[in-house]
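Ticket #4471: structure export looks truncated?
Reporter: QA, pipeline team
Priority: medium

Steps to reproduce: submit the single chain below to the structure queue and open the exported record.
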Amino acid sequence: MLDDLRNEIEVINSIYGDNTFSTASNPSLPEDHLLVVPQYAVILRLWIPEQYPSACLEITSLEGVGPSSRKGYGTHVVQIAREVLQRVFVAGQVCVFDLLQELEQSLNEESARAADQTRATQALEDEKVSDATMSQEKGDHSGVSINPPQWAISNTVTEKKSVFLARACAVESTAEAQRAITHLLSTDKRAGKATHNISAYRIRTLVGGNEVVYQDCDDDGEDAAGGRLLRLLQMMEAWNVLVVVSRWYGGVKLGPARFGIINGVAREVVVAGRFTKDSQSHQ
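Actual output as written to the record:
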């Protein structure tokens, strides 16, 4: 149990940051742990029995919330977290990473539903009409942008015969992001033949004087890789960028190590393309 838990703590903190998952520093209660939900500044108290992961952990209470959280929000998050735990726990398998990831996803979806959907939907429809009009005026009926995207490209990484390569380009709309992917796969034969082309984008724009944000990802068959890639862009505070990581499978399974390689080449290309917050502020 101790090795499984220790490894899980190390993996989660390497992805989300130090002290995201930690013991509660109470010698009399070694089973007590704290889990931070980073995007929402919520801290959950977990009770992890000695038999974990054969036995399920418990979400015992709320440890704390951010100062700007509305009244009762922390209790609401605890309820959602308990529902998520029931879905992700499988006896014999560690589950805190899955709990954290799915909890963030549930909260993100809830926040999106609570936003002004009418404005965002109308903005997207206006954008589609504008893109369709521009395409007709240019005589572009192929679905491939006339002005090809300018890709920043990472170094190639090879691990046990699997090959990884990341690309990043600037995008200002969801339609432009999709056109860039279509252009890449239709004009680059090697990319088109990749086993997986994992993608994620983050776009921030002004519509009628109001800021509208679009972000999405696609695993392309590499289970959960798209969400991790999008999380990386969020942590790097990268905006108006599309990242595509191509993987050519070499016949040997890499396990969780593949996510580190995918995020590694992605981080390299985001920095090289100067898409981070610090880089953009100096442009």
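Status: closed, not a bug. The export was complete when the record was re-opened. Leaving a note from the reviewer for reference: The first strand starts at residue 21 and ends at 23.
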